[in-house]
C-alpha cells in the first residue's frame, strides 16, 4: 500500500509514542506501581492504537479501495469491500 506521506508520518509518530508508552507500563509493573495507574496507561495505549487503526483504514480507503473502484473490476471491488467490513469488525472489538 502506498501510504499518504502525511498519514505515514502521523502513523510512525503515533507508533513511536505507543512504543514509549508500552515500555513505560513495563517499568510501572516492574516498579510495582498502583494497579489503577497501570490500567489507566493501558487504556491510553488502546486509545492511541485505535487512532493508528483509523489512519490505516483511511489510507486503505483512499488508495486501495479507490484504485479498485476506478479499475472497474467488480471482483476486486468486492474483495476490497469484504476486507474493509472484516477490518471494521476487528477494530470494533
Automatic annotation (TrEMBL):
InterPro entries (UniProt xref): Metal_Tscrpt_repr, Metal_Tscrpt_repr_sf
CDD domains: CsoR-like_DUF156
Membrane-traversing stretches: none
Family: Belongs to the FrmR/RcnR family.
Protein name (record): Metal-sensitive transcriptional regulator
Organism the protein comes from: Paracoccus pacificus
High-level lineage: Bacteria, Pseudomonadati, Pseudomonadota, Alphaproteobacteria, Rhodobacterales
